[in-house]
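For the sake of transparency, this paper describes our internal protein records without simplification. Such a record has a labelled line for the sequence and another for the backbone structure tokens. Nothing more is needed to write down the fold, since each code stands for a local backbone conformation. For reference, a complete record is included directly beneath this paragraph.
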Amino acid sequence: MSLPTTRLQRFVRGMLFCRFSEVIMMPGLHPPPYRTPLDDHANEQPEEQYCRELKTFLATLTHEQRRLYAAVESDRIGHGGVRVVTQLTGLCQPTIARGRRELADLLEGKSIKKERKPGGGRPRIEEKYPAIAGALEEMLNDEVAGSPEGDQKWVRSSVRKLRDRLRERGFDIGHCTVSALLKRMGFSMKMNVRNRQGDSPDPAKRDEQFQYMASQRKAFREAGLPMISVDTKKKELIGNFRRKGRAWCRKAPEVDEYDFSSQAECLAVPYGIYDMTKNTGYVVVGMSHNTPEFAVSAIARWWREEGRVTHAGANQLLIFADGGGGNGSRARAWKFNLQKKLCDPFRLTVTVCHYPTGCSKWNPIEYRLFSQISKNWEGKPLRTLPIMLGYIRGTTTTTGLTVKSCLDEGIYRKGQKVTPEDVKKLNLEPHSIHPRWNYTIRPTQQPSLNP
């Protein structure tokens, strides 16, 4: 059996041998040339610095290597070698004697016996109490069964409560043992997991909509026409309020204890437009309400300042939007404002595809733009609107994302009245596949106004 050694251990061992040579060649010491560094007389005291160096070297070895090294040196010294090695290394004599036995076994071709004997250690609690697993399983089943409207108390039991209940049944155990037993039974502390598939009553209908949206995306991409993904980001309180996350700083920012909306400067409503062909973002921060009029005004502002410049000559636009909110598929005001504020003024044909209910996480703006903005300002209080706009504009990614942002101080009131007669006057063409989610709005015959 070869003992594993590293280059550092071999180097240190060589240095120690050289150091021992200096010690034994001191005046008055004349060892024979064949004696090793540990071949010193038993009645001589070793040098303190060398002892420290030797103990430091031995600390790099395993217990097995340490015993074998001490055994080799004690055998070389001969009579009294165990006592000398004990003084130099700090190892007790029984340990060195065990190393000598192990060395003798290795020389005879035998393997070294394991340090820990089989069967050692405390037995598992299942061996002491064979019925404890069934009792614990019964307790946990009682917690997840029954009607919440009945007499049963729906209480989340901690390991300490389970311990107390098991002790009442005669199992003398601690809460740590309960925790270990639960893990062996397959239980663990878990959080709620959201279902990314969405709560769709008709999965086939949902999948068909995704396939149709993919075909629309492919057609617009091949034609070189613009495609955008739109949505409203979470509303943000502007003020000295705490934000989740951490940021590099020498001193943690001090924020207010509570984040009451009455203490906020205002409530910011960010509406984002993500250009899927140019990998650019445009965020309009409103100070009013998240209404269809505000959503369409933000899209029209983007087209006026960015879209028609980067997509010069384009007369069609594809919009991917969620199924609810200000840009919801059932909102008549959304379609009415698209006609009046986007299609007619800019003579633009707009195709809209809505994501099915519960599938908003597939909207590209969620993971391409909004997630990056959240990462950029996490742990940083949004004390003023200019600070918020600065963080939005400073959002970038390694893939080349750039974001522009502006403030919209307009007042958009809720409850805009759009009658069914107004909808009939729109130049709206529903698609053959899921017409409620897919439709095209074309400009009317009236001449365009000054956009």
Strands lie at 227-232, 236-238, 266-275, 280-286, 316-321, 349-354, 402-408, 428-430, 438-441. The mean pLDDT is 83.
